[in-house]
Amino acid sequence: MKVNGETISEDEVRREVQRLSLFYKQSGGDVESDAMKRRIRREAAGFVLGRVLLSQEARRQEIEISPVEVENDLDALRKQCGSEELFQKHLEQLQMTADQVRARIGAARQTDALIRQVTLEVEEPTMAEITRFMEAHPELFDKKESVRVSHILAQAAPGDAEARAMARNALADLREKILAGGDFAEAAAACSDCPSGKDSGGALPEFGRGAMVPPFEEAAFALREGELSEPVETEFGVHLILKHDHKPAGRAPADAVKGAVRNLLKDIARNKMLQDYIAELRKKAVIED
Fold this sequence. Notes:
Elements: E1 2-3, E2 6-7, H1 10-26, H2 34-60, H3 67-81, H4 84-94, H5 98-118, H6 127-136, E3 142-143, E4 146-155, H7 161-179, H8 184-191, H9 195-200, E5 207-208, H10 214-222, E6 232-234, E7 237-247, E8 250-251, H11 254-284, E9 287-288
Helix pairs in contact: 1-2, 2-5, 2-11, 3-4, 3-5, 6-11
């Protein structure tokens, strides 16, 4: 394909196909059907075409960029490679010279500057628009049931009955000491085989259903706030679980999400402005298949 005399290589489109395929796959989409493959191919070609049109327009407008920022980006790439030798090997793999990479970085920065220029005047969404969006997409604001717990782990292999019995007995004794006034976090730091013991007194990040192995999850959700479990066995070993907090499922308060919705609507508006701009560039372009 040629756009205003500039060739778009099949490799560029293929790389974009790979990126989109991975995105749809990670989102749970079916990327193997013929219909989806055609859709991804069409979207990839359109994305590359739009990128080329923006780059050409940025050059036409002679948008200024900072040479210092370009050099900083090139230096950052060098550092990512780890050494000058590895950087040169990376250039060989790209089949590019440092000057060619520098030119590509400059072109990307020039295009980014054009995009910022095109989408600068996005309007603030009104409260009515925010409210309508929230009413139309209630699923985006549903809060899942979640808990916050700390635990102490005594590791024991699933098939090692003797080790599991010793772990259960040790944690049963430790449980009695904690119930008698011992500090759970101190016990976790001293005894737990989980890194969370030493790092945070056994505290785990807040989690919802499906995040932990079933026996651990069932115990964590069944406990009352402030309650300490009996020893709980999982594939990792034996646990004591202390429950701190239990948040029921529900809808996030409107005031808590209005800011996020406002930003989302502005992003949607910016994207529409950009797509409209690309459509106008496309009308004027000479495109050859």
